[in-house]
Amino acid sequence: MDTFLQQLINGLVLGSVYALVALGYTMVYGILELINFAHGEVTMIGAMVALTVIGALVGAHVDLPGIVIVLAGVLAAIPACMLLGFTIERVAYRPLRNAPRLAPLITAIGVSILLQNLAMIIWGRQYISFPPILPRTTYHLGGATISVLQIFILVLSLVIMAALVALVQKTKLGRAMRATAQAPQVAGLMGVNINSIISLTFIIGSALAAVAGVMVSAYYGVAHYYMGFLLGLKAFTAAVLGGIGNLAGAMLGGLLLGVIESMGAGYIGDITGGFMGSNYQDVFAFFVLILVLVLRPSGLLGERVGERA
Amino acid sequence: MSALKPLSRRPAWLGFVLIGIALAIAPFVVQAGLGIYWVRILDLALLYMMLALGLNIVVGYAGLLDLGYIAFYAVGAYVYALLASPQFGLHLPFWITLPLGALVAALFGVLLGAPTLRLRGDYLAIVTLGFGEIIRIFLNNLDRPINVTNGPQGINLIDPISIGGLSLARPQDIFPGMSSAHAYYYVFLAATLLVIFICMRLQDSRIGRAWAAIREDETAAEAMGINTRNLKLLAFAMGATFGGLSGGLFASFQGFVSPESFNLMESIMILCMIVLGGMGNIPGVILGALLLTILPEALRYIGDFQRAVFDRIIVDPADLRMLLFGLALVLMMLFRPAGLWPSSQRQRELLKSDEPAPPGLYDEQR
Predict the structure, then answer these.
(1) Do A116 and B63 touch (CB under 8 A)?
(2) Cis before residue B145, ω within 30 degrees of 0?
(3) Considering the entire predicted model, what is its pTM?
(4) Would the pLDDT of A307 be above 60?
(5) Of residues A179, A141, A198, A202, the one with CA closest to residue A10
(6) What average pLDDT does the segment A46-71 reach?
(7) Taking a C-beta distance cutoff of 8 angstroms, is the pair A215, A272 a contact?
(8) DSSP state, A306?
(9) Are A22 and A98 a contacting pair, CB within 8 Å?
(10) Most confident listed range (A193-207, B179-193, B279-293)
(11) Is residue B268 within 8 Å of A114, Cβ to Cβ?
């Protein structure tokens, strides 16, 4: 039972980060029907920029509480990622909006490799460690422990998700986004500036990715130029699991995938009689992805959409 | 038009003979000009050509974006490695291990294809990517509790191909002046020519046209009576077969395999070769594979250049390689989506759009 509760907590924390990244995938897919392969890399860049700022502040012995320093890192990462997301869409995707599907997909892969290697050249191949400036208090909950950082990540991502839902459902901008997702041409005729809405979608998604990137690096204590790939893939899985194009689906899918993954890692040894260990943790996301796509391609909350040739 | 004879007509066989002679002496010319190291590069280029041609069947002919293609290469390589190395003490001859590797790879191709073929293009891309990673993770971890793949250390001391008592690792025993790189060159060349021949025949066959129809419009193809499911499976299996074959050849050539050789970046690089050369066009794919195998080697000179100019290495050329690949993918899709040497059909298709293309973008191609 203790293991169960502990893995549940770990899974929910990890899952909330997946959900934040998954929202970026799902928003872009909802409007453009494009898998923004580079989204995971945007998350990575967010983490790297934040860590650079945090490292510089810590190195300068600024007399500020740890939370404030991390916040400064986040505040630097968000605009950097927004700019990056905007640029990616403008340069790599917009010119191909009317091209066959394969073209933007290949471009997206190209951008992803480009960013990864750019990051490798700028920040090097080594793991960059997150300075231990955050409070390390832990609380006991039943037989499990939960740290302040975990609570912080969970609460912050829930707040951000709520804010995003409010933005999409309640504001004029959100209505324009939903209209563009539904029927771009008609939305355009109704006076919605589709191009700026699409740009904005990328910008918002990238901002969420920046926050998620900082969370992941704080949680694991390290950042690496390659971290965006697996994170992006898992977040995409989460988006598909929940039903891609569906905001609530991305959140549910993220949390669910996080829990599945940590439960799997916690129990796989028992299930397979010691044949497989927690080193197979990363396999779960892929199996979940394949299962969902085969059994219910529209995801848990998605509606069945007609095939577009 | 076809009734009119061209004014001057060299006999077709002359061209073939000239190409044949050029291919036959190529390794010796390369060795004389650039050294034995480049003969090995030539061997690798031939392996990549086979891989690119195999992936071309899946992506270029049938239009299914496969991002986990390297998994089949890995399967072929590991089948060869396990059956012809001290790992299990088995030393089966190549004419068993190579076809078996190709067959097992084809089986994996069907295994991957069967559940995923209903998926739309971009979903398929992600699932194949996941499949490639799953294979790699298993290869990495199948050393416990039973040691099958020897984990991250990989399998060493793999038997070289030996034909009638002649080991390709030591051809100088019979042919003085020849090295292992030369011997493998001819084996790889034969295999590549076989693959090219099969690809050409496939392209012009009923199956090839059915693949093109599926690629252009799956719904219409199905309405025309094409069994899309079986044909897509066949594309996966054919592509995987070539992947498995080149994997087996790779294992015997290197004498060593480890999971690290089969990561996602390799899949992407093979995709790059196809995209760069021209999807669906055999000469284009060959050109792409050749260019992208040579390019990283040529990039080493950038390191020398940096050292000469700045007295130190500022950017490691190896790091620059993937950066340039990424950039090349983006630029190719933006400015020359049909590749350097496109097939006429594919070019029309890639330039097709529901709405007029943005002005200026494709102008240089018309």
Answers:
(1) no
(2) yes
(3) 0.81
(4) no
(5) A141
(6) 89
(7) no
(8) P
(9) no
(10) A193-207
(11) no
CA dihedral B61, A100, A208, A185 (to 10 degrees): -150
Of the CA atoms within 13 Å of residue B314, those in its CB half-sphere come to 7
Closest-CA residue to A111 (of A202, A19, A184): A202
Q: A101 and B323: CB-CB below 8 Å?
A: no
Largest CA-CA distance found in chain A, in angstroms, rounded? 62
In Å, how far is A93's CA from the nearest CA of chain B?
9
Range in A212-221, A254-263, B126-135 the model is least confident about? B126-135
Nearest to A41 by CA among B335, B322, B317: B322
User: Which among A87, A96, A121 has a CA at the least distance from the CA of B331?
Assistant: A96
Inter-chain CB proximity B265 and A113 less than 8 Å:
yes
Rg, chain A, Cα only:
19
Closest residue in A to B60 (Cα) is: A102
pLDDT at residue B9 in the model: 61
User: Considering only CB atoms, which chain B residues are within 8 Å of A109?
Assistant: 67, 268, 271, 326, 329
pLDDT tens string A259-294: 998 888 877 777 776 666 667 777 887 888 888 877
Distance between CA atoms of A145 and A6, rounded to whole angstroms?
Answer: 7
Nearest by CB: A289 against B126, B219, B355: B126
Nearest CB neighbour to B329, from listed A109, A237, A285: A109
ipTM over the 0.85 cut-off: no
Contact between chains at B271 and A109 (C-beta distance less than 8 A): yes
Residues in chain A: 309
Chain A residues touching B133 at Cβ < 8 A: 233, 282, 286
**Average pLDDT rounded to a whole number, residues B51-55:** 95
CA distance B191 to B196: 9
CA distance A247 to A237: 14
State the CB neighbour count (10 A cutoff) for residue B4: 6
> Are A197 and A168 contacting, i.e. CB atoms less than 8 angstroms apart?
no
What's the token pair of residue A286? 């892929």
Selection from B48, B32, B118, B20 nearest residue B294 by Cα: B48
The one-letter amino acid code at B56 reads N
